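Exam revision sheet. Question 4 asks you to relate a sequence to its structure. Input first:
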Amino acid sequence: MSMGQGAPATPSASVGLAKSVGSTQELVDRAVAEVSKVLLGKEPQIRLALCCLFARGHLLIEDLPGMGKTTLSHALADVLGLAWKRVQFTSDLMPADVLGVSIFDSANASFHFHEGPIFTQLLLADEINRATPRTQSALLEAMAEGQVTVEGETRPLPDPFFVIATQNPVHQSGTYPLPESQLDRFLMRIELGYPHPRAEREMFLAKHSAAGRATQPAQRIDRNQLDTLRAAVAQVQTSESLLDYLQRLVAHTRQSPEFEMGLSPRGALALLNCARTWAVMNNRGHVVPEDIQVVLPSVAAHRLVPSSEYAGDGAALVELLQRNVDVIGS
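Answer key, C-alpha cells:
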C-alpha cells in the first residue's frame, strides 16, 4: 500500500546527502550480509537493529532463550568495530555491578573509581527483566543522556554508546516486567523468532564444519562512515503531506478505542527519526510513507497500551497497527 510519494528533497539537500554518504544502501547491504553469516535468515531484523543504532537509539529484543540475541549483538559490534561487553542480569545483580564502584587504595589513602561494564560502546544487557527494578533503572540515565552519575560524580560514556537489551517473555518465571517509562527509553523493539527451516538446516551443517565454527564477521562500517551516516539523517527532508500522514497515524492511536494509551509526543518523534534513518539506509534524501510503515511495529508496539481485548497478545497488536496504517493511508 502506498499513500503516494512524499515530496523529494530540494536539489541542494539531495546533492549534499549524496556527497556526504554516497551509496549508503550498498554500505548497509554489506553490513547486513556480514552479520547474516552468523545469524542466518534474519535479514529484516538485522536491518532494523542497524536502523536503531544509526538513529542513536537503543534496542530491546524480546524472545525465548537460544534465538540468537547474543549472536546478533556481538556480530553488530564486529561489523561496526565497536567495543563490546555483556552483562548477565540476574536477581542478585546490583547497580554497582553495572556502573562501577570506588575502591579504597590503602597505599595512597584514596579512592579510585573502577569502571563497570557499562563503559563500552555496545553493551548487551542480557535478560534484563530478570534483574530487580532497582538494577534495571541503573541504565536509565546512561540510555537517555550518554552518561552515568556514581557517588555524586557524572562520568561520560563512550561515543557511540548503544544498548541492546534482551528480555524473556513476561510469562516466564523469575521475571520483573519493565515499566512503561523504561520501555520508552528503547527506540525500537524486535523479535527474532524461530529460524526458517532452510536456515536452520544450514545452521546444523555449519556447526559441524571448521569453516562454520571459525566464522567471525569482519568490520564493514568504520567510525567515519558511521558518523557521516548518522549526520545524514538530519538532512533528510519531510514533506507537509508526509507529516500530515504521520500525525493522522499518531492521532488514531490516541483516539481509537482499541488502544488504552496511544503514542506520546516522544514516541511520535521516535517514529519520524527512524523513518528518516530508514530513508538514508535506502539512499534517499526524503521520507516516503513506506519508511514509516516499515519501522512502525518496532517503534510503536512497546509504547502502546492496547485495550483489554488485545492485552497480552503482541502478535494481535502488531496486526492491529498494520491494519490501522492501511485504513489511515487509504
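Marking note for examiners. The chain has one domain: 11-329.
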